[in-house]
Write a structure and sequence with these properties.
There is one protein chain. By secondary structure, the protein is of the alpha+beta class. The chain folds into two domains: 2-105, Nucleic acid-binding proteins (OB fold (Dihydrolipoamide Acetyltransferase, E2P), Beta Barrel), CATH 2.40.50.140; 133-426, 2-Layer Sandwich (BirA Bifunctional Protein, domain 2). Helix content is 28%, strand content 26%. It has twelve helices and 18 strands. It has helices at 63-71, 123-128, 130-133, 137-159, 198-203, 245-266, 268-274, 290-299, 312-322, 372-381, 390-394, 410-418, and strands at residues 2-3, 9-10, 24-36, 40-47, 50-57, 77-86, 94-105, 163-164, 170-171, 183-186, 189-193, 211-219, 232-241, 287-289, 325-329, 352-357, 360-367, 403-409. An eight-stranded mixed β-sheet has the order 8-12-13-18-17-16-15-14. Strands 3-4-5-7-6 form a five-stranded mixed beta barrel. Strand 1 (2-3) and strand 2 form a beta hairpin. Helix 4 packs across helix 6 (245-266) and helix 4 (137-159) packs across helix 7 (268-274). The longest helix has 23 residues, at 137-159. The chain starts with a strand and ends in a 20-residue tail after the last helix. It binds aspartyl-adenosine-5'-monophosphate. Aspartyl-adenosine-5'-monophosphate is lined by residues 176, 196, 198, 220, 222, 229-230, 233, 235, 237, 361-366, 405-409, 411-412.
Length: 438
């Protein structure tokens, strides 16, 4: 129940129950559908919590109210006040017999997108008119669940002692190999949109904050249009001092499980809207090494040369074999970024990991090199110039503790939890090679 500015008590459609039968209520919402049967008109009002049937028998309601309701266009914004009556056949088991029917803002016709989905639309058309697309409960449900996940991540990490930080998105250097940067002009200098908070979260390990997290945008100039890549994504990053790769994998595993528990607990109706059913995953998640992954793939007829990243077809095979959540650990040092720490006794392998869900990589992380001279060597060995890492490297000279961390793609997480077929479904306004508007 909410107090409107007009001093009235407004109810959401889902808040009306038996206790309201016989009482007057005020509803605000959009016209989902109008059915005119001559002697009786039905208007289906939709608000963010569901639907209500407004029933207008010609002989019962005020003629003015009847006239307004009969000719109101779909998706107009309305305010309805009326008496609640039990009606088994209506949504939520009640109907409203209106004493007033106000058209607050009449919608134009025809609609660029059919919210009632009598005419299905392509993803591109839906994204072009995303505000209308979001009026569909099954689409809005995705973002109601994404909100529960975001809050769950934030609460979980806070409870684990992590401090939320915000690092710059306008930067001067690259962090991740593999993808290109988006350049921009920054007064007289060249600058870029940040690919990852990696360097900053590591520098913060030298600040004594010890455990930090950030939920923020990352920008990647991926050339290819795929169902799992965006050019602007949201990454959940952590970095923790005095922890190794195993320690931060434990944090990740617990955070994932907690998010599933919260969605099951608080998001049941949204899961129904989306048409998804989920189960809280069992722990511990299997941890297979990169070498074991190659062996599984070889058995299945996929030969990958040691040292190479695992291409999508190979990941699909692994996903089928392992199902659910699993970690691939101990990647070849050459396949991971410069900051990943190699094992002392086997430097060609690094203390790194990817979190997978089926075929989809959700997160990657590692224990980091914390010794200045080792880090300089590693940067140079990747063909990069240590000079361009000045501010980052300085932090390693004056008391850098051992540390580890990871980054998890929020949209990939939502996509895999809800079984969405395209990552764009998990972002309100996606950015891809073709899409810069809206
Ligand atoms: P990485 O580059 O693997 O690691 O990114 C971490 C996670 O971010 C998500 N992600 C993306 N999601 C959608 N579209 C993209 N183009 C995209 N790129 C990345 C993925 C991926 O697993 N600095 C390291 C993390 C760390 O070591 O702490 C990093 O950025 O889910």
């Amino acid at each position: 129940m909410t107090e409107t500015r007009m001093g009235e008590v407004r109810k959401y459609t889902a808040e009306i129950g038996e206790e309201d039968f016989g009482r007057e209520v005020t509803l605000y919402g959009w016209v989902h559908e109008v059915r005119d049967l001559g002697g009786i008109v039905f208007v289906i009002l939709r608000d963010r919590e569901g639907f209500a049937q407004i029933t207008l028998p010609k002989k019962v309601v005020n003629p003015d109210v009847f006239k307004k309701a009969r000719k109101v266009r779909r998706e107009s914004v309305i305010k309805v006040r009326g008496q609640v009556k039990a009606e088994e056949k209506a949504p939520n088991g009640y109907e409203i017999i209106p004493s007033s029917f106000e058209v607050i803002n009449e919608a134009d016709a025809p609609l660029p997108l059919d919210v009632a989905e009598k005419v299905p639309a392509e993803l591109d058309t839906r994204l072009d008119h995303r505000y209308l697309d979001l009026r569909k409960p099954k689409i809005q449900g995705i973002f109601r669940i994404r909100h529960i996940i975001t809050k769950s991540f934030r609460d979980f990490l806070t409870d684990e002692g992590f401090i939320e930080v915000a690092t710059p998105k306008i930067v001067s250097t690259a962090t991740e190999g593999g993808t290109e940067l988006f350049p921009l002009s920054y007064f007289e200098k060249e600058a870029f949109l940040n690919q990852s908070p990696q360097l900053y979260k590591q520098v913060l390990m030298a600040s004594g904050l010890e455990k930090v997290f950030e939920i923020g945008p990352i920008f990647r100039a991926e050339e290819h249009n795929t169902i799992r890549h965006l050019n602007e994504a949201t990454s959940v990053d952590i970095e923790a001092s005095f922890m190794d790769h195993n320690g931060v994998m434990d944090v990740l595993e617990k955070m994932v499980v907690k998010a599933y528990e919260n969605v099951v607990d608080k998001g049941e109706r949204y899961l129904e809207w989306v048409g998804a059913s989920i189960e809280v995953p069992e722990t511990p998640f299997p941890r297979i090494t990169y070498d074991e992954a190659l062996q599984i793939l070889k058995r299945k007829g996929e030969e990958i040369p040691w040292g190479e990243d695992l291409p999508t077809p190979a990941l699909r095979v692994l996903g089928e074999e392992l199902g659910g959540f699993y970690f691939i650990v101990d990647w070849p040092t050459e396949s991971k970024p410069f900051y990943a720490m190699p094992y002392e006794e086997e430097p060609e392998i690094s203390k790194s990991f990817d979190l997978m869900h089926g075929w989809l990589e959700l997160a990657s992380g590692a224990q980091r090199i914390h010794l200045f001279s080792e880090l300089v060597k590693s940067i140079e060995s990747k063909g990069l110039s240590s000079e361009s890492f000045g501010f980052y490297l300085e932090a390693f000279r004056y008391g850098m503790p051992p540390h580890a961390g990871w980054g998890l793609g929020m949209e990939r997480f939502v996509m895999s939890m809800l079984g969405l077929s395209n990552i764009r479904e998990a972002v309100i306004f996606p950015r891809d090679r073709q899409r810069l508007v809206p």
